[in-house]
Amino acid sequence: MNDHIRRYVETDGAEGHEWRPGVHTLLLTTKGRKSGEPRRTALIYRRHGDAVVVVASSGGAPKHPAWYLNLETNSEAEVQVGPEKYQVRARTAEGEERAELWKSLNEVWPDYANYQTKTDREIPVVVLDRV
Q1: How many domains does one find in the chain?
Q2: What is the pLDDT of residues 16-73, one digit of tens each?
Q3: DSSP-assigned beta bridge partners for residue 27
Q4: pTM
Q5: DSSP assignment of the chain, as one string?
Q6: By residue range, what is the domain housing residue 57?
Q7: Integer angstrom CA distances of residue 30 from 14, 68, 120
Q8: Cα 73 from Cα 111, distance rounded (Å)
Q9: NCBIfam families, alphabetically (predicted)?
């Protein structure tokens, strides 16, 4: 477990939720598509109504990140936002919704636009709806 995730878990989000000034992260726990084991990832997010939204950028790598592939296999997951933990169902935003959310997330982390220039894949925008 990396230091950021460890601090987030140990402090119940008091450390790590605000990763950089104005940039907040959540912890996403998916079920490994091959192992079936829990896999935890820290991701920048933005709230969108009752949902939280994340980007499967992997820094512009040619392949989707493992956590996204896990969600394609099993859309049920858990998030921790600060001290709050709850279950979510993931879906990939498309069309106008994706365009709106992509713009909103780029306001939080402008490097997403740069990451998109590094890959031929359309970087997924993932909506995590509370269940």
Answers
A1: 1
A2: 999 999 899 999 999 999 999 999 999 999 999 999 999 999 999 999 999 999 999 9
A3: 42, 80
A4: 0.95
A5: --HHHHHHHHTTTTTTSEEETTEEEEEEEEE-TTT--EEEEEEE-EEETTEEEEE--GGG-SS--HHHHHHHH--EEEEEETTEEEEEEEEE--HHHHHHHHHHHHHH-THHHHHHHT-SSPPPEEEEEE-
A6: 3-130
A7: 22, 9, 25
A8: 28
A9: hi_GC_TIGR00026
